[in-house]
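Supplementary Methods S3. Complex input for the zinc ion-bound model.
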Amino acid sequence: MKALRVAALMVAFLSGRAEVLAIESVRTQEIFECRDNEVMTWGDGLDRPAAASPMKIAYNPAGAPPWFSEKQASGMVALAAAAWSLCGVPSQRVAWNPGQKQPADLVVVQWNEAGSGGNFGLANFRLRTLSLGPKAFGLLKSKNPGYDAGATLQMVISHEMGHLFGLMAHSRRCVDVMSYYSNGKGEVCFSRDRSQIDSVPEYRNDFPTACDIERCRKANGKRPLAAGRLVPASNGSGR
Ligand SMILES: [Zn+2]
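Predicted complex, serialized as structure tokens:
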């Protein structure tokens, strides 16, 4: 029995696991390392300094789909803010009453169909809002009930937050959270190994990559990352 189990494991490893591990490693390398020529955009916007620095961020759960708890969604906002903090623009989560006037240094993450423009999410730099789209997430759930919509929500929050940190253009590097895979004119995004793009359900990362952070640091007048490498915060706290 023991030998059989080992043999079965070996078959599983050789037929699929090794490939999966290889795919993960290229993608993971791209997430943590930005090479000199890899900061690339679709040229659809001009980067600028963040909407506020330091930035205060509040989450308003009103109107959220019932399957996203306040704890889950606000946790995702916190994770995205922590990841973008590597940009060098400090941010702080704050409580905010929607009845109050919005301070000039406050970004509000909210559920607002009009604000989302029918998308999963849309950032408004001038109003300092990050509007999530209840309808788009409802459609995703009804079409793919088994799909983890939480991963999509995290990616959308991270992406739209990137716009508020000053990244106006979309990235042309597939793995970047700010990326578009294609410009609709037949041109496709860049990867060190294009053959692996379709091998994972979603190649784009849920959080800013080394190139997202590199571009954000430049837009905000910060020094480049050492060796283009992202060093994740070891204790999850700020810097
Ligand atoms: Zn965008």
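The radius of gyration is 19 Å. The pocket of zinc ion is lined by residues 159, 163, 170 (CB under 6 Å).
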